[in-house]
Amino acid sequence: MIKDIVTYPSPLSVEYATDVRTFNENLFALIDDLKDTMKENNLDGLAAFQIGSYYNVVVVKDENGEFLELINPRLISHSGSVTTEETTAYYPGKTVPITRYESISIVYQDRDAKDKTLKASGELAIVIQRKIDYTFGATFIQRMDKEQKERFELSLEYGVDIGTADYCPTTFKRDKIITVINITMILMALNFLVSLFLSDETLLTQLWEYQLYASFGVLGLNVIYFFYAQYEGKQYTSCTSCQIGNIIGTATISLIKLSVLMVLSYMFLKP
After folding, report:
1. Residues β-bridged to residue 109
2. DSSP state of 23
3. Which residue has the higher pLDDT, 37 or 91?
4. Is 37 in a helix, a strand, or coil?
5. Phi, psi dihedrals of residue 191, rounded to the nearest 5°
6. Is residue 170 part of a domain?
7. Considering 113, 131, 158, which residue would you say is the last residue of a domain?
8. Beta-carbon contacts of residue 109 (< 8 Å; ≥ 6 apart)
9. How far apart (Å, rounded) are the C-alpha atoms in residues 192 and 7?
10. CA nearest 243: which of 174, 177, 179?
């Protein structure tokens, strides 16, 4: 019988699958449902979790397109790694690069409750790993690093495919320029505060020169930031509407801070 596949945002049935202990007609009916659902949706693998069952059962297609019935599968060894573009029925229309083991060995039971082993590599190994993830209540999102996960969650919110579109990330390389600018201005502010407690004209002159050269550096960095930020922003098609406003705002605030510091320095430090 063809079953509905659980899709996001509906949660998976439980946190982890229950091992099959009774091999009876109910189990065989579940396996048949998995096969029928795979055929209907043209899938290469399906876990019982994906149709709302809590049993540890996975069905995949091998290299010849034949069904492999994996009951209580366990990954026992692996080697190598490979990154491929993955899709999953739980997140329809989403494609992401995921790194998995290139070759694996698993143990499982067949429908006669006999213990079996299987070695797989390539696409079959990847499919099996994807389906075993489901038996632990997980999807490929648990395989992502922090930045990739944040981008994927944004894709779920805004409906853009991470694998086919550029994203407006939460951090940019240009942020490093702002960090340098801020550190420089903090040093300038400390330099100014120290000068308030000094009376030696020679030392005050040296401090003024430092402020002057540092201000030129900050001004130059702001120019670099402004143009590089625009270049970097054009690399992400999904957030160009907000780029120029943020860039101008950041540069303007930085220049205002610099201006205040230099006015105060001119008043108190300049010989």
Report:
1. 71, 115
2. -
3. 37
4. helix
5. -60, -40
6. no
7. 158
8. 20, 23, 71, 72, 115, 116
9. 60
10. 174
Q: Quick one: tokens of 264?
A: 């105060």
Please tell me the distance from the alpha carbon of residue 42 to that of residue 44, in angstroms, as a whole number. 7
What secondary structure does DSSP assign to 134-188, as a single string? HHTT--GGGGS-HHHHHHHHHHHHH---TTTS----S--TTHHHHHHHHHHHHHH
Question: Which residue, among 167, 130, 269, has the nearest Cα to 212 in the 3D structure?
Answer: 269
Residue 95, SS3? strand
- Determine, yes or no, domain membership for 64: yes
Structure token pair of residue 166: 């550029």
Dihedral of CA atoms 215, 218, 224, 226 in degrees, nearest 10, equals -100
How many C-beta atoms lie closer than 10 Å to residue 113's C-beta? 13
Angle at 58 between CA 57 and CA 61, to 5 degrees: 155
Residue 121 corresponds to which tokens in the numbers above? 């590599």
Amino acid, single-letter form, for residue 46: L
How far the first Cα of the chain sits from its last, in Å, is 90
SS3 173: coil
Residue 104 sits in which domain range?
25-158
d(C-alpha 44, C-alpha 86), whole Å? 12
* Nearest in space to 246 (alpha carbons), one of 165, 178, 195, 189: 178
- Give the model confidence (pLDDT) of 38-86 as tens digits: 999 999 999 998 998 989 999 999 999 999 999 999 999 999 999 999 9
The pLDDT value recorded for residue 32 is: 97
pLDDT at 92 > cutoff 50: yes
Residues 183 and 122 in one domain: no
